[in-house]
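Lab notebook, bench 4. Continuing the backlog of folding jobs that were queued last week. Each job is logged with the same field layout so the records can be merged later without manual cleanup. Today's entry covers Class I SAM-dependent methyltransferase, a 243-residue chain. Filled in by technician R.K.

JOB TYPE: sequence-to-structure
TARGET: Class I SAM-dependent methyltransferase
LENGTH: 243
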Amino acid sequence: MTTDKPFDAMFSGVIGQEYQMLKLICPFATEMSRLVGEIVGAYCERQNTQQTVVELGGGTGITTLAILSAADNLKVLSVDNEPIMQSQAQQSLRDWVAADRLSFSSDDALSALQALPSDSVDILASAYTLHNFHIDYRRQVLAEIYRVLKPGGQFVNGDRYALDDISVHTRSTQREVGGYFKVLTEINRLDLLEHWIVHLFNDESENHVMRESVALAQMADVGFREIELQQRMEVNALVTAIK
Ligand SMILES: C[S@@+](CC[C@H](N)C(=O)[O-])C[C@H]1O[C@@H](n2cnc3c(N)ncnc32)[C@H](O)[C@@H]1O
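JOB STATUS: finished
OUTPUT FIELD FOLLOWS
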């Protein structure tokens, strides 16, 4: 992370190339994308016009596909600044692009949001992206999310939300690390194990960790209402809010 690049490029190496291995060490990740899609679908069902969805951190397209499949009356702009990740989504989701349901931005999340007009987006959806951000950058992103959403617009984020009880959080993270070792040593992928452990240190560092109460308070500070933590699965949670 530098002043020029105020975000961490943690998905450029082996993690990005072999991102599909995540489902082995974090089965919740796939479920979370499904849940994000469900929230988006339910929101779209209540509207009778075309809905604009901006997705932050589309990655290889797992969450993007869940969103696209959730309703017919939506179009997605999927933002991701890591080419190794986004190129996989561009390949697997090319039919959705051809059908004019999906477009991509390779800007970083904050720049992409800053380029959008105020009150122009119906739904802002994301999974496992915001927790990667530096806390200062995340605060700016949240304010921009609020700005670009239309009044009444939906924010949904399925992500790592650190538990407020630090001891419980630590035990949960320890179990998670145990799972990484079990799965990745069994298939002899010590290279991936190393990268995911290094990545986890970034997630858990004081200037990145997205602690539940702090994160929800930040959302309230920028103006969101009806802020709800809908489901928690260990260190993972589904958070929704309305502008
Ligand atoms: C863990 S992946 C999640 C991908 C997908 N949503 C899923 O759940 O499978 C996080 C993604 O966020 C992207 N990302 C991280 N920081 C970003 C930033 N500042 N701007 C845009 N994308 C970012 C990474 O490149 C990566 O593809």
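OBSERVATION: Residues 46 and 52 are 14 Å apart (CA to CA).
SIGNED: R.K.
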